[in-house]
Amino acid sequence: MIVFDRVTKQYRAGEPALRDVSFHIAPGEFVVITGPSGAGKTTLLQLVYRELVPSSGRVVVDGRELAEMSWRQVPALRRRIGIVFQDFRLLPRRTVAENVSFVLRALAWPVSRRRERTRRVLEWVGLAHRAHDWPQSLSGGEQQRVAIARALAAEPRLLLADEPTGNLDPARSLEILGLLREIHSRGTTVVLATHDMTLIESAGVREIHLREGRIEEDRKVA
Ligand SMILES: Nc1ncnc2c1ncn2[C@@H]1O[C@H](COP(=O)(O)OP(=O)(O)O)[C@@H](O)[C@H]1O
Ligand SMILES: [Mg+2]
């Protein structure tokens, strides 16, 4: 599903943010990208959704080499990818439900399907009862669950999460991790970037550990 083949990304003169990074991620995997701040985790995820293109090497997603994709084709790629950020990025003047259904409106889903899907994903993250509230009236953990519902709304096969627990306390962080694992168990490929090593103490995930832009370790956490 995702192939990195000798990828180097250099923003400007100096040390590259990623150097000679190669890995495969198969459909249905749960992969945690770890490493200290500045290791290259965000850069790696941005290459997957073509926010960035590599300085050298190839990034292939679903069989398509992203550097060969024209800008017109990028929205179609992003529609198949759900993305969750540390700072939630909810629209403040839209209700919780509107934040979720907005995506589906942009995809021209008919109103009835939109409503049904929005209800379903909000139920699923445990927030159906907050559907008509403003995002700011929710706790951080709840806002992140709305962001996850929004990322899942259009049924992506791939979910990317960049430090989704960075603004949350440990208990809320574990809740979010549990949700991501549940999403994974339903068949979605999940790639989670985090500097929080305590999050990956749970068994069975694959860890790709970055340090100064290089893969230092690629292992299954036992
Ligand atoms: N837009 C940018 N312009 C220049 N340098 C950047 C940019 N984004 C990230 N970097 C640099 O690239 C390196 C990797 O950053 P990043 O991918 O954000 O790491 P992480 O997410 O692991 O903290 C860091 O040295 C960072 O300063
Ligand atoms: Mg980052």
Strand and helix layout:
Layout: E1 2-9, E2 18-25, E3 30-34, H1 41-48, E4 56-61, E5 64-65, H2 74-79, E6 81-85, H3 96-106, H4 111-124, H5 140-152, E7 158-162, H6 170-185, E8 189-193, E9 206-211, E10 214-220
Parallel strand pairs: 3-8, 3-9, 6-7, 7-8
Antiparallel strand pairs: 1-2, 1-4, 4-5, 9-10
Helix pairs in contact: 3-4, 3-5, 4-5, 5-6
Bound molecules: adenosine-5'-diphosphate and magnesium ion.
Tally of extended strands?
10
**The top level CATH class name of the largest domain:** Alpha Beta
From the N-terminal CA to the C-terminal CA, the straight-line distance is 23 Å
In the CATH hierarchy, the architecture of the largest domain is: 3-Layer(aba) Sandwich
Percentage of residues in helical conformation: 25-40%
How large is the share of residues in beta strands?
Answer: 25-35%
What this model shows, in words?
The protein is an alpha/beta fold and 222 residues long. The chain folds into two domains: 1-80 and 157-222, P-loop containing nucleotide triphosphate hydrolases (Rossmann fold), CATH 3.40.50; 91-155, no CATH class. It is built from six helices and ten strands. The chain has helices at 41-48, 74-79, 96-106, 111-124, 140-152, 170-185; strands at residues 2-9, 18-25, 30-34, 56-61, 64-65, 81-85, 158-162, 189-193, 206-211, 214-220. The strands form two sheets. Strands 6-7-8-3-9-10 form a six-stranded mixed beta sheet, sandwiched between helices. α3 runs parallel beside α5 (140-152) and α5 runs parallel beside α6 (170-185). It is globular, with a radius of gyration of 17 Å. The two termini are 23 Å apart. Bound molecules: adenosine-5'-diphosphate and magnesium ion. The site of magnesium ion (MG) has 4 residues, from α1.
